[in-house]
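Key result, reporting period 2: structure in, sequence out.
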């Protein structure tokens, strides 16, 4: 018997076929349009290896398939095709193997239907392939072939692909805004796309090497390339054609975003219909200039400042490079026509010009005269004065402008860049408002342009003077740039401006000029800074799942909390930047001579034995604070004279347990609905349960009065750290909602800190609400057992932005009180003072909106409003748990924000504390200052199994279920002389007593230990209570144990 008859070719083919199917499945991908495609290159590479099951008589697995598919039926005859003959027909062979007709490979070869003919249309198939036994395979082949011939991305691609699969693994829409007005109409959609490395041609790979990355967690473990895709609907062909032509003309110009090609194809739209689109493939930027300003810290050292202006020089080079173009020996002039920060992209740590969609090209005239053209594109903010009437819609006449109109726009960009270098992101915000205020005063119009009636806006040149005055002494470039901008770019007369080439040449000469010797950074610090920078980059890449091809990953290193989550290109709008509040600048002296920080005299009479005490207002000198913060206060001032306030006498605290009992007793069932006008008047405390003292009789009227025209928003922290307190938080929320039904005419809102909370849990304003709705929402929003790290700033900012946006509109919004149920942990907030900075910015913005400006000569404008008095927004924290860091964070927000000149609009109350303070603590100073006592030996009901105590554990803890007789509810009251609250710092450190010297704290300090200065011992040898000279005390401070007896 021959060897051929002994060898089981059928079994060998079946093994080879199963392994082929496995390889095909592993190399299969699904595009974002839903189509399957195969990485053919990987399939071939793997088949050209020999697997363990492959018999040694075959060269490799592909040879085994090539031979056994024939020999299994014709073992006595040699195969009709050898392995070498498959060259150029491998994809055809793979498709035929897949559909069960590998023997027809000879027919395809004979008719020249090779791989490069894929996909083959049905008519060609039926014309070329006439084998009778293949008729049943036509439809199968026609459908199967699409997965094996995805489009290859090539440099300079210019094809119509129709039904072919585009190998796009990720496609994320980018929504750049135009001056806050949303995406430009009648143009295109912009996307970030990711393409497998194998589907990118070698020339394009070399050109876009920096776009290569690896997404960690990708099962394919392959590299990808990221590009930008500008997609036009079929009806917008003329826009596509114009822009594609412009990109073709500007290809390879240094400083321009690179154009890679275009293609036309079919995609499934949102309605499931197949539609034709025109697409332009471009280099992808990391972000635009505005986003870079928002996210990156400004340059500080001389080298950093030099590097920044070198990057700006690159933009001037780009504009100059397209200023004149040559095609076939003919010279053309170019207008970009829409230079602005949003069209300047950050690519590989340099800035490039993008979006020539508004650009215009015109044949250059023979002489050297500055040529004009009718150019209609542009953005109002950065448009030159000669285009203003058309861009403002005041004239239908298309403007005739010279190329220096682009120079004006670039000058606006440099003006903003200089502001960023000198003052940082907040300075850019302020600059925008300065221009708006100037134009509003001069024209009565709301605008932020850099000109007025054809002339440069005076506020712009004055702002530049201000920048020169406050620039760092190490900044040797910004003042010169501003001089050039003022003298040669932001010039009203177009013919007096520099050309783009002159701007480039000025930059080149200035940057090459030898500057003053730069002091070298100590090598130790330089090395540390570089190490930190590398660490941040690694953390970002590990956390985001993106790994650059040249990145060294540190093994077994956890992702940093500081790492950014999103890895998509960030093209946030200018509007988002401008919607942020302006933060007060630390260490900036007020205009004129600032007074020394005052020291308050807290005088306590020796016979003081009752809870009623007279002492100085615990707020420090508001004049000093307002000068630093930029606002004013009309409340009680505390100069070095002994201005004193009467602190309300202590009263018995009203806990939520008592409220619930009384509400139930009065028949307010848990399905009580807030029908306005039908609400039964019920005291928070109620007279039926306990005797009402005179100190609480007026509080219900206060509650109803304060919330008559005020919105109530409940914000619940549902991070994982709140899970042990969830039953207690639900109980407290039910009580607060139950008590406040009907006060808010529009109904209350409920929202949560976790962005992944089910949308059904969020409750919007409604005139008909009941407690059960809020209870169900709490069930839906219950924290997960996973380590869900949340932060409070995004949701809090959204709530506050609703108010500020309404203030900017014609309607006057209702005031808001935001009641936050939280433990203060906020583990997703990586930078400790993030919320401080945000709230300080919010208070400054509120002052701007309410015209709460500094008082000059003690005269108030009629339109001037003190936000510390009108309290447009207040924040009330209801604290759960015993986390010390959370406790201190909330205490700091309650007590220390006034140290920075902020109005006292924040209060904190423990969850088992006084209900009146939960409602009114942030609204009413007297209630905020008033001490409360818990009922004598009253045992609290502890039905929620997870109720937490109101103080940190350890030596500072108290039992939540039992209170001492007539004990002060101290962790929500001002510092009392009886508490010796200065004996221990809020970080557990001991304050050292001093004999006779008073150490005054710096008002600019952020360190609680520095703010809590050393002090006199309160007991003299004779047992007399000596006066204290203290920095601003903090009410609501952490309770401390009594002083141990000697």
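The corresponding designed sequence is given below.
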């Amino acid at each position: 018997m021959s060897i051929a008859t002994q060898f089981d070719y059928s079994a060998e083919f079946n093994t080879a076929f199963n392994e082929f199917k496995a390889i095909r499945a592993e190399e299969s991908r699904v595009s974002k349009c839903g189509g399957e495609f195969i990485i053919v290159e990987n399939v071939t590479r793997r088949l050209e290896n020999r697997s363990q099951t492959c018999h040694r008589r075959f060269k490799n697995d592909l040879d085994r398939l090539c031979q056994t598919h024939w020999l299994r039926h014709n073992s006595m005859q040699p195969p009709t095709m050898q392995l070498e003959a498959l060259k150029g027909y491998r994809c055809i062979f793979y498709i035929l193997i897949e559909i069960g007709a590998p023997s027809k490979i000879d027919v395809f070869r004979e008719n020249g239907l090779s791989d490069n003919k894929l996909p083959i249309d049905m008519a060609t198939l039926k014309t070329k392939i006439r084998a009778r036994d293949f008729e049943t395979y036509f439809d199968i082949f026609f459908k199967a072939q699409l997965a094996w011939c995805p489009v290859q991305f090539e440099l300079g691609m210019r094809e119509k692909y129709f039904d072919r699969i585009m190998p796009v693994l990720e496609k994320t829409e980018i929504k750049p805004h135009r001056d806050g007005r949303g995406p430009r109409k009648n143009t295109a959609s912009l996307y970030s796309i990711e393409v497998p490395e194998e589907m990118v041609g070698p020339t394009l790979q070399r050109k876009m090497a920096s776009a290569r990355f690896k997404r960690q967690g990708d099962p394919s473990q392959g590299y990808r390339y990221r590009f930008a895709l500008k997609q036009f609907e079929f009806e917008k062909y003329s826009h596509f054609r114009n822009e594609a032509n412009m990109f073709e003309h500007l290809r390879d110009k240094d400083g321009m975003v690179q154009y890679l090609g275009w293609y036309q194809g079919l995609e499934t739209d949102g309605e499931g219909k197949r539609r034709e689109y025109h697409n332009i493939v471009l280099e992808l930027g990391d972000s635009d200039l505005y986003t870079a300003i928002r996210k990156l810290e400004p340059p500080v050292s001389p080298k950093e400042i030099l590097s920044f202006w070198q990057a700006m020089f690159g933009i001037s080079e780009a504009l100059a490079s397209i200023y004149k173009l040559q095609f076939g020996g003919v010279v053309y002039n170019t207008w970009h026509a829409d230079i602005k920060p949003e069209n300047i992209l950050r690519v590989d740590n340099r800035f490039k010009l993008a979006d020539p969609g508004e650009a215009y090209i015109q044949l250059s005239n023979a002489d050297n005269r500055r040529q004009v053209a009718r150019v209609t594109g542009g953005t109002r903010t950065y448009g030159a004065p000669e285009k203003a009437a058309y861009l403002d819609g005041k004239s239908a006449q298309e403007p005739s402008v010279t190329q220096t109109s682009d120079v004006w726009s670039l000058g606006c960009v440099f003006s903003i860049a200089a502001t960023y270098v000198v003052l940082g992101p907040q300075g850019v915000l302020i600059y925008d408002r300065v221009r708006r205020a100037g134009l509003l005063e001069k024209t009565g119009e709301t605008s932020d342009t850099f000109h007025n009636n054809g002339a440069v806006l005076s506020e712009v040149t004055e702002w530049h003077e201000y920048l020169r005055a406050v620039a760092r002494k190490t900044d040797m470039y910004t003042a010169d740039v501003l001089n050039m901008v003022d003298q040669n770019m932001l010039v009203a007369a177009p013919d007096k401006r520099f050309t783009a080439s002159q701007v480039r040449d000025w930059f080149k000469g200035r940057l090459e000029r030898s500057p003053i010797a730069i002091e070298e950074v100590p090598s130790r610090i330089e090395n540390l800074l570089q190490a930190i920078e590398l660490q941040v980059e690694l953390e970002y890449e590990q956390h985001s799942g993106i790994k650059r091809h040249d990145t060294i990953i540190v093994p077994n290193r956890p992702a940093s909390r500081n790492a950014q989550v999103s890895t998509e290109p960030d093209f946030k709008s200018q509007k988002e930047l401008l919607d942020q509040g302006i933060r007060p600048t630390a260490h900036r002296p007020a205009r004129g001579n600032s007074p020394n920080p005052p020291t308050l005299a807290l005088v306590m009479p020796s016979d003081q034995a009752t809870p009623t005490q007279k002492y100085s207002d615990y707020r420090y000198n508001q004049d000093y604070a307002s000068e630093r913060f930029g606002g004013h206060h009309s409340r009680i001032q505390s100069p070095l004279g002994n201005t004193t306030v009467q602190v309300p006498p202590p009263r018995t605290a009203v806990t939520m347990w008592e409220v619930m009992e009384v509400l139930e007793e009065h028949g307010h069932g848990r399905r009580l609905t807030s029908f306005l006008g039908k609400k039964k008047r019920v005291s928070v405390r109620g007279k039926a349960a306990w005797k009402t003292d005179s100190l609480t009789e007026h509080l219900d009227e206060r509650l109803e009065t304060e919330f008559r025209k005020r919105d109530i928003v409940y914000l619940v922290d549902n991070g994982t750290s709140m899970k042990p307190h969830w039953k207690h938080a639900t109980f407290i929320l039910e009580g607060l909602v139950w008590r406040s039904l009907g006060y808010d005419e529009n109904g209350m809102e409920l929202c949560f800190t976790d962005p992944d909370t089910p949308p059904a849990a969020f409750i919007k304003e409604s005139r008909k609400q009941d407690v059960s709705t809020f209870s169900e929402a709490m069930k839906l929003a219950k924290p997960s057992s996973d380590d869900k790290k949340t932060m409070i700033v995004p949701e809090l900012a959204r709530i506050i932005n609703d108010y500020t946006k309404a203030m900017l509109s014609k309607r006057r919004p209702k005031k808001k009180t935001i009641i936050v149920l939280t433990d203060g942990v906020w583990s997703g907030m990586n930078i400790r003072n993030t919320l401080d900075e945000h709230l300080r910015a919010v208070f400054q913005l509120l002052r701007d909106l309410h015209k709460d400006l500094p008082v000059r000569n003690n005269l108030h404008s009629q339109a001037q409003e003190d936000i510390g008095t009108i309290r447009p927004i207040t924040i009330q924290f209801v604290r759960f748990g015993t986390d010390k860091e959370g406790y201190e964070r909330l205490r700091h927000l309650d007590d220390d924000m006034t140290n920075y000149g902020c109005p006292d609009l924040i209060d904190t109350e423990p969850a088992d504390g006084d209900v009146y303070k939960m409602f009114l603590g942030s609204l009413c100073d007297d209630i905020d200052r008033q001490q409360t006592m818990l009922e004598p030996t009253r045992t609290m009901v502890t039905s929620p199994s997870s109720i937490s105590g109101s103080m940190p554990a350890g030596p500072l803890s108290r039992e939540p279920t039992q209170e001492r007789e007539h004990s002060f509810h101290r962790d929500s009251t001002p510092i009392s002389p009886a508490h010796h609250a200065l004996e221990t710092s809020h970080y557990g450190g001991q304050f050292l007593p001093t004999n006779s010297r008073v150490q005054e704290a710096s008002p600019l300090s952020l360190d609680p230990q520095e703010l809590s200065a050393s002090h006199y011992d309160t007991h003299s040898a004779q047992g007399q209570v000596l006066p204290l000279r203290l920095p601003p005390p903090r009410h609501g401070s952490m309770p401390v144990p009594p002083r141990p007896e000697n």
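DSSP finds 31 helices and 31 strands in the chain. The chain has a mean pLDDT of 74. This case is discussed further under Risks and Mitigation.
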